[in-house]
Amino acid sequence: MNILIIGAGFAGSVCARELAESGHQILVVDRRDHIAGNAFDIKDEYGILIHQYGPHIFHTNSERIFNYLSKYTEWYKYEHRVRGVVNGKEYPFPINRDTLNQLYDLNLTEEQATEFYEKVREPKDTVKTSEDVVLNSVGRDLYEKFFLNYTKKQWGLDPSELKAGVAARIPTRTNSDDRYFTDTYQAMPLHGYTTMFENLLNHPNISVKLSTEFKDVLNDDQHFDHIVYTGPIDAFYDFKFGHLPYRSLRFEHEHLENTEQYQSVGTINYPNDFDFTRITEFKHLTGQKHSSTSIVREYPTDAGDPYYPIPRDENEKLFKQYQALANNEEKVTFVGRLAEYRYYNMDQVVGAALNAVDKILGQK
Ligand code: FAD
Ligand code: UDP
Questions:
Q1: Which ligand lies nearest the alpha carbon of 12?
Q2: Probe target for ligand 1 pocket from 27, 38, 343, with the most ligand atoms within 8 Å of CB
Q3: Rounded to two decimals, what is the model's pTM?
Q4: I need a surface site. Which of 142, 307, 341, 346 has the fewest CB within 10 A?
Q5: Is 67 inside a domain boundary?
Q6: DSSP E strand stretches across 205-256
């Protein structure tokens, strides 16, 4: 088959490689001037490897997905750590026993931390919203200190207006584990994401056309037996049911001369101050040694490239309308964070792409 793939991010590139391996001819197009989608990384003008679209930390519990990507990259072992600033002081985040001890000047054991949460939590019969999730696990004071304003800033919505899954990404801990993720596999591509994508796409059956809108390719005379679409699903259908809301970010990159290290950990969250949500210092993530450093601040916004589907019932309803059309397409497969309107992490997108390929090849 001649297959057109729209988007050179995780969804598109994994599909491209797998379909190429099965003997098909693949054309990948992306409107951006680079591969790797939102995982794109590049050395900035000072030689520091930065993530253009914000910090991307790879983590998964899936051996299959880790082994799959390991064919295209070696790894740098990295466990992400985050601290949240409240009233000018940094605390371990997600909230753990040390957060409680430092914040409230206590000396709780693990058992006492469990009792502490029991005392302060506001139990909910049904946990529907992100507000429910947090109040149900840590109660109002911690909710207001760490979650309420961060969420309002990130989404432009109150946590009560967002589905439970958003805040449920963040665990609550009774021990002192201060890692952001506890997945079995946590690592960064040793030579960066972009190099990993170059390896994925390096196959005699794959050609890549950048700075190309997919509709322009369809207008050419070329015939395609199948299309894999990884862009926003509403755009594919010319927004016929209306725009699906996606949240965007403005990234403010900064380089700091003569500063070997800017902050204590990879990411510092600022729930209650500033218009940005967090600052990430890339050298923590990549292990790069350099006498100066580069950081990024993330400013949430409605306008701009779509980065996050917004998990709310009303959006899910609108998505379902588009999905019904998508389900009837025999020659088009929709896969990825924007096409499936799912708050996927990178590993989940790899999994979704591998499943999509099985379907296209008639193996499922
Ligand atoms: P994308 O990477 O968005 O790729 C889609 C591509 O399609 C884009 O390159 C786009 O240009 C192209 N495209 C769209 N429409 C068209 C068109 N009409 N014509 C041509 N090309 C088109 N995940 C993690 O696991 N860990 C993290 O730490 C993490 N951090 C993140 C931080 C931020 C700030 C963001 C925004 C996301 C983060 N993610 C993280 C999620 C991760 O970025 C996504 O899961 C993953 O990149 C999605 O891959 P994708 O291929 O579905 O989409
Ligand atoms: N969150 C919060 N305070 C924080 C960090 C996260 O309230 O300090 C909430 C917020 O709603 C955020 C969600 O938890 O959108 C998920 O956080 P995560 O760090 O997983 O977001 P991502 O890295 O995907 O932007």
A1: 1
A2: 38
A3: 0.98
A4: 307
A5: no
A6: 206-209, 226-229, 246-256
